[in-house]
Amino acid sequence: MRISSLVLSTALLCSTNAFADWQLANDQSTLNFISTKNAKVTELHKLKSMSGAIDDAGNAIVKLDLSSVDTGIEIRDQRMLAHLFDVARFANATVTLKVPQSALTLKVGQQQSLTLDFNVDLHGVNQVLPIAVVVTALEGGNLHVQSTKPVILSSQAFGLDAGIEMLRSLAKLDNIVTSVPVTFALTFVAKS
Predict the structure, then answer these.
(1) What would the pLDDT profile of 110-164 be if each residue is shown by its tens digit?
(2) Does pTM top 0.85 for this prediction?
(3) Where does 105-171 have alpha helices with state H?
(4) CA 21, CA 16: separation in Å to the nearest integer?
(5) 94 strand-pairing partners
(6) 3: part of which helix (H) or strand (E)?
(7) Closest CA to 171 of 93, 84, 92, 91
(8) At 37, is the secondary structure helix, strand, or coil?
(9) Which of 9, 17, 50, 139 is the one with CA 20 to 30 A from 154?
(10) How far is CA 162 from the centre of its chain?
């Protein structure tokens, strides 16, 4: 009986991520989005602050701090906070999803490509989006989850069209494209 317990314990240790919980490492993670104005000027933006976790059952949550938007232009950041994201009422966007056990139990260096249903709660509206990702097992039992294609978010789907129009008017632009490509690379650190 003791030998079988030892074998089971050894097997669990060999599967680096078995029965672990993971915390999002903000300093090792990125979320970028692109906007296009006047039909020809495309700019890269990012969110600087997010938090989240994955539990050992694969339930994942990521909270995006919308007040951490960084477009490289302070007045545009302020306008986005007030008129687009309305952070006074909607401080965060929240993403929840289920990560399959096969991705949680990868060995160091292994990868798995998946399409997962991300439930995105943005501006008080929930949308389920199928998103292609690759999950990679890192040293120390850590996980890296990265989009493999840009995720296209529609301002109309999340009730953001009025905010886009306000930004267009304030900046005296001819137009702002209302479909926004988003990419992300998230590192989750195994809790010890």
Answers:
(1) 999 999 999 999 999 999 999 999 999 999 999 999 999 999 999 999 999 999 9
(2) yes
(3) 161-170
(4) 12
(5) 63, 121
(6) helix 2-14
(7) 84
(8) strand
(9) 50
(10) 24
Task: Give pLDDT tens digits for 20-31.
Answer: 699 999 999 999
Please check the confidence at residue 1 and state whether its pLDDT lies above 60: no
- Residues near 41 by beta carbon (within 8 Å), at least 6 away in sequence: none
Query: pLDDT tens, 29-72?
Result: 999 999 999 999 999 999 999 999 999 999 999 999 999 999 99
The beta-strand segments (E) located in 48-177 are 50-54, 59-65, 69-70, 92-98, 111-122, 125-137, 143-147, 151-154
Residue with tokens 């979320």: 31
Mean pLDDT confidence for 102-115: 97
Question: Do the Cβ atoms of 18 and 105 come closer than 8 Å?
Answer: yes
Tokens coding 72: 């490289």
**CA–CA gap between residue 13 and residue 100 (Å, rounded):** 19
SS3 category, 117: strand
Please state the length of the chain: 192
- Tell which residue, 117, 67, 68, has the closest CA to residue 95: 117
Task: Return the half-sphere exposure (C-beta side, CA atoms, 13 A cut-off) of residue 118.
Answer: 22
Instruction: Give kind and range of the element (H or E) at residue 38.
Output: none
Paired residues of 50 in beta bridges: 64
Place of tokens 């240790």: 13
Q: What is the pLDDT of residue 20?
A: 64
